[in-house]
Specification:
Bound molecules: flavin-adenine dinucleotide, flavin mononucleotide, FE2/S2 (inorganic) cluster
Number of domains of chain A: 1
Oligomer: heterodimer
CATH superfamily of the largest domain in chain B: Nucleotide-binding domain of ferredoxin-NADP reductase (FNR) module
CATH class of the largest domain in chain B: Alpha Beta
Number of helices of chain B: 16
Shape of chain A: globular
CATH architecture of chain A: Alpha-Beta Barrel
Strand order of the largest sheet of chain B: 10-9-13-7-8-12-11
Strand order of the largest sheet of chain A: 3-16-15-10-9-8-7-4
Strand content of chain A: 15-25%
Helix content of chain B: 25-40%
CATH class of chain A: Alpha Beta
Structural class of chain B: alpha/beta
Largest sheet of chain B: 7 strands, antiparallel
Largest sheet of chain A: 8 strands, parallel
Chain lengths: 326, 542
């Protein structure tokens, strides 16, 4: 194992800083149907599942996906089979990955977040699940469907509720939405609530209209933008959080940088901005060897420059340096 | 049907003794295999020719006969093969995978050169394990074992257990899964660099239909119903990590448009139209005539040449990009994808007829299903709906006899003929637009100005005593109609679904289709739970 690549999020050691990002790598053993499954699993530090909710959800109307310039808009609508079936059917399969697993959770009220976390804790008899990623971008039914993620008070409440159920037995990551005026406010609120780490960004709200029919393309009309086109936004938000949130600057609360990563230099950008680990999503659909490619290139970069990931985190906030590019 | 079987085979007593020694050495292993083969042979009413004991000492190439007197030990393999060719019946020639590639190469080369694509002589190489078999199925082996088929001891045993209830329990047999549709892909999904061999417009001048022919470096098993996802932009390592963004290496003509024009980002899903095997003629399907029981234990080499037929959408980004690909271009492809339809299991049932009902470009993936079904000698009837006759015509690739000119060919129809369907009795064509009747030469069952479902329901009404299974692909409304019609006659129907996809590997949930399972509504991923889905599971009303 390459020590230069190793990072940790709270008490979970990641052998590489590469994570799957929620909703783009399945929740079962889909990776095992890939020829390069061993390389993928060897390149990952942890596996983040698709969003899980208390009850089964059928998701949104079709079409759920539309391609845009250098990215996609999706409105999957959090289709999943519910937490009970997830543990019955999928978790046993996830064991085969032999990776720390983080469950991405979504709920429609603060108390539901709590109930969901409690269930996960109870079902997790084999301790395969190492962490919970709270998706605060989902709509809050009580507040007319507005996302939790835009209201610092709500985010703090949600995180507190989850924390009160799982205590220190699971690592809590709060996944922030970019659809806010000041992401650092939300980040701070999550930290006040007791989160162990932040991840950002979720998809940016967007839509596409078919000019020939005059109608929105997505069945749900609006969707979330992801892919290479959102990377500058993601890098900026990680940079801002690292700079303005003292716990992040002091590297007490690690950040998982997500959004549009398609190669090694993209991943490095996030790390230099302040991310401890990175999540790779949409681009995996395009390049099915992306995990092993980035893993290899990162390792080469670190070796050539005699560096470690730990040491590179947040370097963009200091002085400029001269390094061999990757 | 009558076969002659040639094998290195001693008399019954001897092999029985040898079998007792089990698999301890090559000789007894050979004998064991033939003990097993013998059972199968009897069941299939195959006449056997025995070979000399010497064959167990690797002298594979000398024959001695029992029953057919003209084969003699001291004759060369060429002479013996020549003798075989005089026989009217089909000859099965079994040999062993472990007997040295050179011997096998000689034998299969001789058979191949004398046979002249009549498929009267069928060479079958037996392997000890499926790993050995897999190695042999790689395409580079196609030159060693020329146009041979492969099987293993396990496959034969399984067949016997199944058909004869013979006590071969001690023989370890692999577990097969019980459902027709499964995730047991022979090859896992992988990223392949494909090389374009041809990209031919089909139909009238303003053609919207193209046939894309390409090859892969590594051969790969794609089962009927499975699909591939192709990156429609030509580019070397377009998405590899060192390029900063995919856009940087795009062809210049597109690059100029970059600010205003959309280029494709996701790969595009397509069904396979047909595959080609090294050394097999295009029309092998109409000549190869192996009994179902036997075909069910045979494996071909893996294909490395594939064709897809695609329709260019009016505002389709990806399909328009595809039309720009030319011979020699390389693009990335993720394949094989989707559930595996277990054809071997499927053909075990005694179907009278298998029907394919296709509309427009939806016919394309059904043709590949026919290709595979015909290998098992299954009776297939094709019901296809197209716009008009002209839209079928294209200039096919150069053949050996026409070095410089392209010959006229008909999409769908010609390949169905190649697979052994009769133009006059097995193919039913509905033309949506009226066209010149003179052009239908050959096709007897022509329906003008009609949708494919009309003659199809008429056919079912007339033949409702037959045991039929239907496969359909095409526009949603057409498939829905086919479902209604076949449900009326209680005919099991599978549809090949089509939905917008992003990943193709079941992780994004964008390709869902509404289904009903045990009375509950579901959204099933077409790329994972399909694309072949039983029609009664689909929620057609949504
Ligand atoms: C399993 C499967 C097998 C298929 N087999 C064939 C085939 O053999 N021949 C053939 O011509 N077509 C086939 N299709 C349809 C083909 O994928 C689409 O026509 C094609 O993706 C359109 O791409 P575009 O970029 O030109 O269209 P655009 O409209 O520019 O595409 C935008 C996005 O929508 C998707 N999309 C648009 N139309 C369709 C559609 N009808 N079905 C699915 N996705 C669509 C595209 O993939 C792309 O992601 C198949 C589809 C599936 C799902
Ligand atoms: C199809 C799809 C499904 C997603 N589902 C989820 C989800 O269930 N929960 C979540 O927190 N984020 C979800 N996301 C957001 C991604 O995890 C990620 O934050 C976003 O796509 C940006 O990263 P990328 O550009 O690398 O894809 C989804 C994204 C896509 C494209
Ligand atoms: S295309 Fe992603 S789940 Fe089917």
């Amino acid at each position: 194992m390459n020590k230069n690549l190793r990072v940790r999020i709270k008490n979970v050691v990641l052998k590489t800083p590469l994570l799957t990002s929620s909703g783009t790598s399945g929740s079962r053993d889909e990776i095992n149907l890939m020829q390069n499954r061993n390389k993928i699993l060897a390149s990952l530090g942890a596996f983040v599942t698709k969003g899980v909710s208390i009850n089964e959800s059928l998701g949104n109307k079709e079409p759920r996906i539309v391609e845009v310039r250098s990215g996609i808009l999706n409105s999957i609508g959090l289709q999943n089979k519910g937490v009970r079936k997830f543990f019955e059917e999928d978790v046993p399969e996830l064991r085969k990955y032999e990776l720390p697993v983080v469950v991405n959770i979504s709920a429609s009220s603060v108390s539901e977040f709590g109930e969901l976390s409690e269930r996960i804790l109870n079902y997790n008899t084999h301790s395969i699940i190492k962490g919970i990623e709270i998706n605060v971008s989902c709509p809050n039914i009580k507040k007319g469907g507005a996302a939790f993620g835009a209201d610092p008070l709500l985010v703090e409440q949600v995180v507190k509720e989850v924390k009160s159920k799982v205590h220190d037995s699971l690592c809590i990551i709060t996944k922030l939405s970019p659809n806010v005026t000041d992401i650092t406010q939300i980040g701070k609120a999550a930290i006040n609530g007791g989160t162990d780490a932040l991840s950002m960004i979720n998809t940016l709200r967007g839509m596409a209209i078919d000019v020939h029919s005059g109608m929105p393309v997505l069945g749900n009309q609006i969707g979330g933008l992801s892919g290479p086109c959102i990377k500058p936004v993601g890098v900026y938000m990680v940079f801002e959080c690292f700079r303005k949130i003292p716990e992040c600057s002091r590297k007490e609360i690690p950040i998982v940088g997500i959004g549009g990563i398609s190669n090694c230099s993209d991943a490095l950008e996030y790390i230099l901005a302040g991310a401890t680990a990175v999540g790779i999503g949409t681009q995996w659909f395009i390049n099915n060897t992306i995990f092993e490619d980035i893993h290899k290139d990162l390792a080469t970069y670190l070796r050539k420059n005699n560096e470690t990931i730990e040491n590179l985190i947040g370097k963009a906030h200091g002085h400029s340096f001269k390094k061999n590019p990757c | 049907m009558q076969y002659n079987l040639l094998a290195n085979y001693t008399n019954d007593k001897e092999f029985k003794a040898l079998v007792r020694k089990k698999l301890s050495n090559i000789k007894s292993y050979n004998a064991f295999c033939f003990a097993v083969l013998n059972i199968l042979i009897r069941k299939l009413d195959i006449k056997t020719c025995y070979l000399n004991k010497k064959c167990f000492d690797e002298s594979l190439l000398s024959f001695k006969t029992d029953g057919h007197s003209s084969l003699t030990e001291d004759k060369t393999v060429t002479e013996n093969c020549a003798f075989l060719l005089k026989n009217k019946t089909t000859n099965l020639i079994f040999s062993f995978g472990h007997q040295g590639a050179e011997n096998l190469q000689n034998l299969s080369n001789h058979i191949y050169s004398l046979d002249n694509n009549t498929f009267k002589n069928i060479h079958i190489v037996l392997f000890k394990s499926s790993e050995e078999l897999d190695k042999a199925r790689q395409v580079n082996k196609a030159t060693v074992y020329k146009r041979s088929f492969f099987t293993t001891c396990y496959d034969i045993c399984e067949k016997i257990i199944e058909t004869n209830k013979v006590d071969v329990k001690k023989i370890p047999s692999k577990k097969r899964n019980s459902t027709l549709l499964s995730d047991k892909r022979r090859d896992l999904a992988g990223l392949h660099m494909v090389e374009i061999m041809d990209n031919i417009p089909v139909g009238k001048e303003d053609s919207k239909l193209y046939k894309l022919i390409f090859k892969t470096k590594e051969p790969l098993d794609i089962m009927p119903g499975q699909f591939v996802m192709i990156s429609t932009l030509k580019e070397k390592n377009r998405f590899k990590s060192k390029t900063i963004q995919s856009i940087s290496k795009v062809k210049p003509d597109i690059h100029n448009d970059l600010q205003t024009k959309q280029i494709s980002y996701l790969k595009r899903p397509f069904g396979i139209y047909r595959t080609y095997y090294e050394n097999f003629s295009d029309d092998y399907g109409s000549k190869l005539n192996i009994e179902k029981e036997l075909a069910a234990i045979l494996y071909t080499v893996k294909p490395n040449r594939f064709e897809i037929v695609y329709k260019v959408l009016d505002r389709g980004v990806g399909t328009n990009e595809l039309t720009r690909l030319v011979k020699g271009d390389k693009v990335e492809m993720l394949a094989p994808l989707g559930k595996v339809f277990d054809v071997r299991k499927f053909v075990k049932e005694e179907w009278d007829e298998i029907h394919i009902v296709g509309g427009g470009v939806g016919i394309a993936p059904l043709i590949y299903l026919v290709q595979v079904l015909r290998f098992y000698n299954i009776k297939v009837k094709a019901f296809i709906g197209i716009e008009d006759y002209k839209s079928l015509i294209y200039k096919a690739g150069r053949t050996k006899s026409h070095e410089n000119t392209r010959r006229n060919a008909r999409i769908y129809i010609d390949d169905l003929k190649y697979f052994g369907l009769s133009e006059s009795s097995d193919i039913y064509v509905s033309f949506l637009c009226d066209t010149d009747a003179v052009q239908f030469k050959g096709i007897k069952n022509v329906f003008k100005g009609s949708l494919v479902t009309e003659p199809y329901s008429e056919y079912l009404r007339k033949h409702n005593h037959l045991k039929i299974n239907t496969f359909t692909c095409g526009p949603f409304a057409m498939m829905q109609k086919v479902h209604t019609v076949t449900a009326q006659f209680n005919i099991k129907t599978y549809v090949l679904m089509e939905k917008r996809m992003a990943c193709g590997i079941g992780v994004c949930f964008s390709c869902v289709c509404k289904t009903i399972e045990n009375g509950e509504n579901h959204n099933s991923r077409v790329c994972m739970e399909g694309p072949i889905i039983e029609s009664k599971q689909i929620n057609w009303n949504e």
